[in-house]
TrEMBL record, chains A, B:
It comes from Streptomyces marincola. Residues 402-426 form the UPF0033 domain. It holds the Pfam family TusA. Belongs to the class-V pyridoxal-phosphate-dependent aminotransferase family. NifS/IscS subfamily. Signal peptide: none annotated. SUPFAM superfamilies: PLP-dependent transferases, SirA-like. One of its GO terms (molecular function) is cysteine desulfurase activity. Its cofactor is pyridoxal 5'-phosphate. InterPro entries: Aminotrans_V_dom, PyrdxlP-dep_Trfase, PyrdxlP-dep_Trfase_major, PyrdxlP-dep_Trfase_small, TusA-like, TusA-like_sf. This is Cysteine desulfurase. It catalyses: (sulfur carrier)-H + L-cysteine = (sulfur carrier)-SH + L-alanine.
Amino acid sequence: MPYFDAASSLPPHPVARQALLAALDDGWADPARPHREGRRARMLLDAARETAAEAVGCRPDELTFTPSGTHAVHAGIAGALAGRARAGRHLLVSAVEHSAVLHAATAHRDAGGTAAEVGVDRGGRVAPADVAAALAAAPGGTGLVCVQAANHEVGTRQPVAEIAEVCRAAGVPLLVDAAQSLPWGPEPGAWSLLAASAHKWGGPGGVGLLAVRKGVRFAPARPADERESGRAPGFENIPAVVAAAASLRAFRAEAEAEAARLSELVERMRARVPELVGDTEVVGDPVHRLPHVVTFSCLHVDGEALLHALAVAGFAVSSGSSCTSSTLTPSHVLRAMGVLSEGNVRVSLPPGTTSEDVDRFLAVLPDAVAGVRAQLLPPGAADGPAADPADTADGGAAAFTVDSLGKRCPVPVIELAAHLTRVRVGGVITVLADDAAARLDIPAWCAMRGQEYLGEAPHEGGPGTAYRVRRAA
Amino acid sequence: MPYFDAASSLPPHPVARQALLAALDDGWADPARPHREGRRARMLLDAARETAAEAVGCRPDELTFTPSGTHAVHAGIAGALAGRARAGRHLLVSAVEHSAVLHAATAHRDAGGTAAEVGVDRGGRVAPADVAAALAAAPGGTGLVCVQAANHEVGTRQPVAEIAEVCRAAGVPLLVDAAQSLPWGPEPGAWSLLAASAHKWGGPGGVGLLAVRKGVRFAPARPADERESGRAPGFENIPAVVAAAASLRAFRAEAEAEAARLSELVERMRARVPELVGDTEVVGDPVHRLPHVVTFSCLHVDGEALLHALAVAGFAVSSGSSCTSSTLTPSHVLRAMGVLSEGNVRVSLPPGTTSEDVDRFLAVLPDAVAGVRAQLLPPGAADGPAADPADTADGGAAAFTVDSLGKRCPVPVIELAAHLTRVRVGGVITVLADDAAARLDIPAWCAMRGQEYLGEAPHEGGPGTAYRVRRAA
């Protein structure tokens, strides 16, 4: 039963397991103590730090082990901003950062700072020129820029080295969230801080990395603690740290060959999915990509139902659809890219995934999507002209309003498709909806169907939003 | 080679090792994911939470796993204070709390709040009436009281249930740092929050517990994160959490018998150490104690040198002497108790310590102390009347000043002892010192020697402090 949610967490690498076991006997004492047991623990911790620093491409004394990648991001952002509080209280982040970064930005705003997002193109990529422009337009000085190395939902890699140059020229440090990319290789470029997370490469949970280059101003968060240069409070889990470092090195030893192999499988999926499943949009930059992530969205599909159907077929995948989220809003990443969020599926292949695993997935996907669509769609509703008497090119009304209030994704888009032919070509159909996904998915549907999206406005005299579409064909 | 630093960290309990291994296969996925792997991880996490909650004596939904005991303390204090920000910004802590609590108090002060310490008696115990008085005297409202269940340096247990009553009557929540006591039993009384740390009972590092009783106002720290009720950000290390819960239950199964056995060994040490080693003060409450901790201080001994001598003899112990600390100040716990800090040794026995281990320690201790004293003391200097011509009861000067500036603990006290007889009985000897330990150890020496401590004053016209002692005999 293939597990295709590698970007969420990987099972322990065999080397992680071995290292963990080996370090249990010597890694339990307090490494700050001068006695024999403490010194043994310290030696393990020091050796792990050297191993991890080599993999990151930094000096051991620049590297801190943290209790998670989230903690590394939070501590890195807070520390860099506090260290440069005099230079500026403005924080610049890309619009597709991990929620850990966005939550840190919110906390910074709540504490009186300012923060802004740099947008991305339809592939999810940040333009270095946009970073430069945002730095130039920033109110007061900018304390920190955060750009992820590669996106966790769509696999798009960012031009980190170029963005680092822009930041260097502006004298602003750059924090790179390398959670998804670090297993595959060190992050090039003159970044200032870097964060990563061990369970993304088959290391244990509970271990993050935070690298802070020498010369970067950094004020550790309070309350103070003497461990890990004051950047991660609390007693270290040294066996886990040892396992994290050892498994990163082991993952890297296989990374180049595995990346080439998985990239081929991903390319196959990116090409085949739209052929096998109608009305599907493959998302993410086609060239600048992680080797193991492929993401697509399926029109007229409830993402949660599709996840369930794939799980029944034996495939564990992930989704950025709003219907799978407790927040009822579609993924901010898909939103920032402006792509369809309905029926969104992220497939992330663990090392060792075979060609046969991928073929089996491609074999079950069409039926899984068709089954989910059949539950939602009236027969023929979204697939072609309905048998409505108004359905002629010049017949039908000049305007029609669909009330989808209170209906959740993907129903508003399904109702839009079902009722489009009630208006004549050139006529305007208005969808009233209060589901957050409609804002993203109605324009995306128009682009996929060649219809003209006219925009949105508050629903006059009522709740929700009115989305207007001109029938083009 | 006995390891007598159990209060710092314990080697992994066999059950912790087994549970860790057993959970590696099923505990690596994201427990927030709906797929099979995620659900398996979630089941392990839920079961661990139930086990730990039972041991704590709270409901599972009141218990959060944190990345460390320090994190539990920091998050608990910050969350409770933020949740009651309208009720009051004053924080009350005992003077002998762990540094994690004191650092959180400092951070609270730096953020504009107020904080005060409740003192302890010479045994290290907080009087509930003192907490009541401090609450009554607090400026504005008090947001939180923090009192540890048992002290990590001297083993003194606090009257937590009584203090909880005082707090309840005042309508102020009580946070109990149970890091040292939780392995031995649940903490009774109506506490509001409780923090603990797994490596203190043979669980792995990287796992703390934070219990927050229903009804306690609590605002999680920012940045926000959806895991662990928002109280501990980042991906959980589930195998470590499982190991922590299982080993707590296993430790508890042996705790009653082991506590009785270790208490006897500790009582033997508390009785024998002063008999075997002259000028030694056993510290900590003689009755209200942890079963496995004994602490004593040795006059005219450099704590670091004694630790080293004991390590050479094969015993790993700890010390609160300033000379073993990077901060050059003696332990704040010993300072709050007003006891001698020179030559301080904390012996904390792990489960399984044998009577023979303790006897061996008692056998090597006198020579270890004597060896260290011999390095520092001129022959006979501190042990009896010096062969100084001025040494007669009515001879000698009326006043004499010893310049110990620039000399570190325990030298100022040694020089005071060596020169005391330069003044006649009733005369005053003044010691000039700039070592922080002198403030604690000169009065403690006077109490041990039956001399009259007159107090301290700034050294007029020079650096350091002038400590004045009247020769009584």
